[in-house]
Amino acid sequence: MSTESGTRRRISPEREAQLYGAVLDLLREVGYDALTMDAVAARTHASKATLYRQWGGKPRLVVMALTSQRRTRPDEVNTGTLRGDIRALVLAEDEETMAERSALMRSLSPAVHHNPELLQAFRDLLINPSLAELDVLLERAVLRGEVAAGRPALRFVPHLLVGALVTEELVGDRLPTHAFLLAYADAVILPALGVPVPDGNG
Amino acid sequence: MSTESGTRRRISPEREAQLYGAVLDLLREVGYDALTMDAVAARTHASKATLYRQWGGKPRLVVMALTSQRRTRPDEVNTGTLRGDIRALVLAEDEETMAERSALMRSLSPAVHHNPELLQAFRDLLINPSLAELDVLLERAVLRGEVAAGRPALRFVPHLLVGALVTEELVGDRLPTHAFLLAYADAVILPALGVPVPDGNG
């Protein structure tokens, strides 16, 4: 592997962003199943050999393209309080971007469930890293004494966040807005973790 | 409409159950998009005219078939406590049935999002009635004094329930079990509603 990596051509961050943008465009246009490495190669004027060498295949390329869209990592948010961190996370992405990303993720859902390699790529590159980042944010709240170390709701915070994002459209017939997510955090996430919410927001 | 309903032939509950069973089988075999009224008619030896007269079309027929699978309506559970009601609801369906139903609902998700008529049928026949039934269950807890009338988490209970069901497979790499759902209710739903949980279960 060391000799191979010695001869591997590096891809610049700009070129990588351009490739990921093209992958996301194709994903929106044709969906996961119909997206081919040939089409990515043609649209980005890259060789298929480069794409395979760099990403190993379609599942990892697509998931890395999705991962590249994330603006803010939970572990990098550090306002000094859990409520502040959650609010900062919610507000880090504008509502339109949030809606577009939700639609894209949702369009991938059937493929994820029928394609073990894609599911594995999701777990390895997106889900597990995000869970670990969220754990850092929550662990800081535990260390500050805001949340009791053994609080049972700690392990369900991912379910609470995902539930808020996926359910509002179906239950509430509208996309989740910033106002909705902030109200949900104050009404559900913080009380479940035993964190007091300022009067008038609980 | 009254003259038409006067000449409408009634379908027996047994025949209806048989039709819904066939629709669900077809749904599992070919998916929503490829499911045709012709195929339903052929498999059930029904005339397409009957199917259209009774259900109005594929979206309502499919959603009614899914709705027919529900064993227990939330408003019919009445144990005397909110915690008891939630536990009874969770345990009303065995884990295998729960998993099968989740898989079927998930397989429909892309169609729901691309087909306004199917989404409308879901809202009219499944989502809104379920929300109303859940409200009855929650309203009883408010009337008993278990939950404060204006408790903000009340409006988010549907999000909490759906979040638990859809996220565990992705986050936890396993289907939601009874044990998971009961622990989630004690850790999240009841604390968010301000309902005390017995020691050792919180």
Automatic annotation (TrEMBL), chains A, B:
Superkingdom in the source lineage: Bacteria
DNA-binding annotation, residue ranges on this chain: 36-55
Species of provenance: Streptomyces mimosae
Lineage of source species: Bacteria, Bacillati, Actinomycetota, Actinomycetes, Kitasatosporales
SUPFAM superfamilies cross-referenced by the UniProt entry: Homeodomain-like (SSF46689), Tetracyclin repressor-like, C-terminal domain (SSF48498)
PANTHER family, per database record: HTH-TYPE TRANSCRIPTIONAL REGULATOR RUTR (PTHR30055), TETR-FAMILY TRANSCRIPTIONAL REGULATOR (PTHR30055:SF149)
Record protein name field: TetR family transcriptional regulator
Keyword Nucleus: no
Keywords: DNA-binding, Transcription, Transcription regulation
InterPro entries: Homeodomain-like_sf (IPR009057), HTH-type_TetR-like_transc_reg (IPR050109), HTH_TetR (IPR001647), Tet_transcr_reg_TetR-rel_C_sf (IPR036271), TetR_C (IPR011075)
